[in-house]
Design a protein that fits this description.
The protein has 498 residues and is an alpha/beta fold. Among the domains are: 151 residues, FAD/NAD(P)-binding domain (3-Layer(bba) Sandwich), CATH 3.50.50; 123 residues, Guanine Nucleotide Dissociation Inhibitor, domain 1. It has 15 helices and 20 strands. The structure holds flavin-adenine dinucleotide. Pfam families: Amino_oxidase.
């Protein structure tokens, strides 16, 4: 947790954890394992799980937040599932072995019109075609076999690993790089500039799908640091191998991600006496000179005060750090000057089946780079991905691998994702705008008689600006863990970073 090798804390210390998302629940779990026995977790919402949010219907979990794991980078989460929530099994998403499991729609560059709801390209084929466009000169394309971009991807993956090790001074397991890069000039640019500058254009298509379409920023604007953090060389290698060996690397879970955190919380409460207060937003944390703190919250309209020795801020710090009105000057510099985030909307809806039904449909060209944003013109926030959890978890392709058997007949329920490259402003107004945009996209997709069931607008992917990264804020936060009796967990990039 901390870069300090050891923080000595008496086991009887009183802890208040603000936020029962994955980070807060996991931290409570770690504290209880260490023998701490006075832990209270306060959650503003009416349930634990934070952005791991699942709506379950007919035994199908529709994950509207955290949705997938990858084998190479999520080892600790697989362990947590196995040990703490064994009924919640990892389920492979056979994106690689099964043709047309994930399809690319609306990519005009590769010959599919955005308005055409009947033309699609299997993701692997799209990746090869797109890599051809990204990395093979136009005059050579007509005589270049489609296998050639595949070889370029493999060679680029090898160069990428070497560069990654050079930048971070060696190998490390997936997670936040243990120390900042020694030479920021290799990284002081956007993700796209990074791939272009370092002769890695053959990886652009892979990054578009894995980084951009997961909402971790548009390649044209996201700092290169975040793209190469998420795209650990092990993940890049494994993606290449998965395509060659036709093995799945993506997994969902049979009961959804919220179930994992709820199960851990329930066990902690029964077996370790950890108190979970839901519907209990914390309004203020006051840290006293005698190294104690008072946490003020409301539950069912009643004000509550909790006196503790340690406060754990397991909330999105880009939005909620001001729960502590008196920050030290160091904290203030770290948490209030260089934070930014994006808006992500996920909408669960039901409709008549479209012309085709696939487990995952993606529109990479619909995630507009920030430079092209014009909100008044409305060219933003289009739906970029549809996920049909029933097909994802129970794929049964029939002959020709195009339709998905009886599960794809009748009313279909999917989650639609929309992205905006700026922090969340007013969740209610934003939701209205997103819905309006989405209705137009449903028409293009041929999804008729739509019933919107649940919509969430998230402040998503809290992160530091390029300047904040150069100032090495993420590593400086590690240095202050435990100071002023406060721990800072923030809202992590993915649950594998907890
Ligand atoms: C649409 C979407 C898709 C995603 N897909 C993936 C994926 O496939 N794989 C992956 O690994 N990750 C994914 N993520 C990211 C992952 O969900 C987050 O990294 C993770 O939830 C962060 O956990 P956290 O506990 O740090 O923050 P959060 O999940 O944001 O939890 C913070 C909690 O704090 C509570 N809170 C806020 N203010 C207060 C207050 N004043 N008092 C009390 N409580 C408060 C909130 O209600 C919330 O429950 C996705 C996220 C979204 C939104």
């Amino acid at each position: 947790m901390s870069s300090k090798s050891y923080i000595q804390i008496p086991r009887t210390s009183r802890f208040a954890i603000v936020g029962a998302g994955p980070a807060g629940v996991h931290f409570a779990h770690l504290l209880a394992k260490q023998g701490f026995n006075n832990i209270t977790v306060l959650e503003a919402d009416d349930h634990v799980g934070g952005k791991s949010f699942t709506v379950t219907e007919g035994n199908i979990p529709y994950d509207m937040g955290t949705v997938l794991l990858t084998t190479s980078t999520y080892g600790p989460v697989f362990d947590l599932l196995e040990n703490e929530d064994p009924e919640n099994k990892p389920v492979p998403f056979p994106d690689s072995p099964k043709k047309n499991y994930c399809v690319i729609m609306g990519s005009s560059q590769t010959g599919v019109s955005d308005k055409d709801n009947k033309t699609f390209t299997d993701r692997r084929v799209w990746s090869l075609k797109q890599t051809m466009l990204d990395s093979v000169p136009a005059f050579l394309r007509p005589i270049t076999p489609l296998m050639f971009p595949g070889i370029k991807i493999l060679l680029a993956a090898r160069r990428y690993r070497a560069l990654h090790e050079k930048i971070f001074g060696g190998k490390f397991k997936y997670g936040m790089p243990p120390s900042p890069p020694s030479d920021w000039s290799l990284l002081n640019m956007t993700a796209l500039q990074f791939l272009e500058k370092h002769r890695l254009k053959a990886l652009i298509a892979m990054f578009r799908i894995s980084v951009q379409l997961n909402g971790y920023g548009v390649l044209e604007s996201i700092p290169a640091f975040y793209a190469i953090w998420w795209m650990h060389p092990d993940l890049v290698d494994q993606s290449c191998r998965a395509h060659l060996q036709k093995k799945p690397i993506l997994f969902g879970t049979s009961k959804g991600f919220q179930h994992l955190w709820e199960t851990i919380a329930a066990k902690l409460s029964v077996e370790k006496g950890v108190k979970f207060l839901v519907n209990a937003p914390v309004s203020k944390v006051t840290r006293h000179p005698d190294s104690t703190a008072t946490v003020e919250y409301t539950q069912n309209g009643i004000l509550g005060n909790l006196d503790v020795d340690y406060v754990v801020m397991a909330v999105d710090l880009s939005k909620y750090v001001n729960i502590i009105p008196k920050l030290t000057s160091v904290e203030s510099k770290l948490f209030t000057t260089q934070y930014t985030s994006s808006v992500y909307a996920s909408t669960l809806y039901k409709s008549d089946p479209g012309p085709f039904e696939f487990p995952m449909e993606m529109f990479p060209d619909r995630m507009t780079p920030i430079a092209k944003f014009d909100e008044s013109a409305g060219n933003f926030g289009h739906c970029h991905t549809y996920r049909n959890a029933r097909l994802m978890l129970r794929p049964r392709p029939d002959k020709g691998n195009v339709t998905w058997g009886p599960d794809a007949l009748g009313r279909q329920q999917r989650v639609a994702y929309q992205f905006l490259d700026r922090p969340l402003q007013d969740a209610v107004i934003e939701a209205k705008n997103f819905t309006q945009k989405l209705r137009g996209d449903f028409e293009i997709a041929g999804h008729s008689n739509v019933e919107i069931k649940v919509q969430k607008t998230w402040n998503y992917f809290p992160r530091f600006t390029q300047q904040g990264l150069i100032e090495e804020i993420p590593w400086k936060i590690k240095e202050i863990q435990g100071d002023t009796n406060t721990f800072w967990l923030g809202s992590s990039l993915t649950i594998s970073n907890l």
